[in-house]
Amino acid sequence: MIVCAGNGEDFSFAKSLGVGLVESAIGLMQICQKESVDSLVFIGSAGAYSKEVKLFDLYIADSATQIELSFLQDKAYTPLDNHIQSGILQENVSYETFANKAIINSSNYITTDENLALRFAKAGILLENMEFFSIMKVAQYFNIPCFGVFCVSNYTHQNAHNEFMANHHKVKEILSHHSELIQQISINLAKHKGL
């Protein structure tokens, strides 16, 4: 099954779940409780923490974190496990077309501080997407193989929102252009689970 956030980031070949960590978790839980879901591929836009990442590049991910900026500033901690990795991309699932692989950070907030963004990049976390961590957690709960496909829409800086809005249509076109491949990967992922 292919899923997306919705609310403007909709695709004809994907089910919309909701924006942010909470809405997407609730939306996906409802689907998983009502339907038989063999695999999950989340598609969406992502902000880049480093300018070494190119706008409009495609990335694939099976690893997500949920780290808030206050944690990077030593102003908060969490007793929760804030990293999840499915490992599905290491298990014979073909994704060669998407040569770029990344760890995705999720938060209900968009990073606008370039210095803090670079701290994520230096830690090996390249992109941020609001929903992916919650998608991975729900998939883990239901034991569903899951990964994400992301198109870089903007950099995480003071002008992040304006840049996102200017590039969003093209990002959706790029992801839609790859719809057949994404659907085939989803089918292969479901078959892989059955082995």
Task: Write up what this structure looks like.
Residues 18-173 form the Nucleoside phosphorylase domain. This is Purine nucleoside phosphorylase. Its EC number is 2.4.2.1. One of its GO terms (molecular function) is purine-nucleoside phosphorylase activity. Keywords: Glycosyltransferase, Transferase. The chain is α/β, with parallel strands linked by helices and 195 residues long. The protein is 37% helix and 23% strand. It is built from six helices and eight strands, in the order ββαββαββαβαβαα. The chain has a five-stranded mixed beta barrel with strand order 3-7-6-4-8, surrounded by four helices. α3 (114-122) links the parallel β6 (100-105) and β7. The model has no long low-confidence stretch (mean pLDDT 92).
Summarize the model shown.
Helix content is 37%, strand content 23%.
By secondary-structure content and strand pairing, the structural class works out as alpha/beta
> What summary fits the major beta sheet?
5 strands, mixed, barrel
Rg result: 16 Å
Strand content: 15-25%
Give the distance, in angstroms, between the N- and C-terminal Cα atoms. 18 Å
Q: What strand order characterises the main sheet?
A: 3-7-6-4-8
Which bin fits the share of residues in helices?
25-40%
- Write down the overall geometry: globular
Low-confidence stretches: none
Oligomerization status of the protein chains: single chain
The number of E-state strands comes to: 8
Pattern of helices and strands: EEHEEHEEHEHEHH
Number of helices: 6
> Which whole number gives the mean pLDDT?
92
InterPro entries: Nucleoside_phosphorylase_d (IPR000845), Nucleoside_phosphorylase_sf (IPR035994)
GO biological process, one term: nucleoside metabolic process
GO molecular function, one term: purine-nucleoside phosphorylase activity
Keywords: Glycosyltransferase, Transferase
